[in-house]
Amino acid sequence: MDRNRGDGRSQRRRDDDNASELEERLVKINRVSKVVRGGRRFSFGSIVVVGDSNGRVGIGHGKAGEVTESIRKGVDQAKKGLINVPLDGSTIPHEVECSYGAARVILKPASAGTGVIAGGGVRAVVELAGIRDILTKSVGNNNPVNVVKATMKALQSLQTEQQVIRRRKKNVAQLRKAYDHGEAAAAQQAARIRVQEAAKAAQNERANQRTSKPRRGGPGGGGSGGNRRNQPQRSNTP
User: Fold this and answer.
1) Model-wide pTM > 0.90
2) How confident is the model at residue 1 (pLDDT cuts 50, 70, 90)?
3) Residues spanned by the domain of 92
């Protein structure tokens, strides 16, 4: 029994050490008012991001009557929902796109030295996750709650090369061969589409040239079939 008690204390000590390494960042504070019999009652909602800048990140949404209490609740919720983000050096393994509600977030890997090209809640999440080079784009609704949750959903869907190999039960050479074959097929399809579009454009141009060419012999044409009523009469007298 004493051994179990000691194990519990050591586990709590490790949790406290891990919590002390986490960095907190406040994304937004929202104030909400409710009309009651005595007047208005205000409450606050805080969106907080927590991470260790080394592959672990979490978000929390706390609500309370005071700002500090709402932030504390958000931090506690974020610490309970930490996720591990697979990293490829200083960036992400592959491009990913996810939506939450009406918000859509696109994350793309970048070369070293690019930096974090993001703003708002997306920047807070990717920086605390330890990503130092990334290209991002937020499309649709800019609600901070939806944007942050869409970013977290995108990070959760990332997979490393080894994870894909285990899931598909194929080696690296087979996966790369399939990828190259798909890239070649896509390039051939794009080339066929470009040729078809060029042929269609040339056909339309020839049709426009035929319709814009003036007719001969018409009322306003240069031939001899114009309107004879408007031509002057020749005199037969010497």
Assistant:
1) no
2) very low
3) 23-159
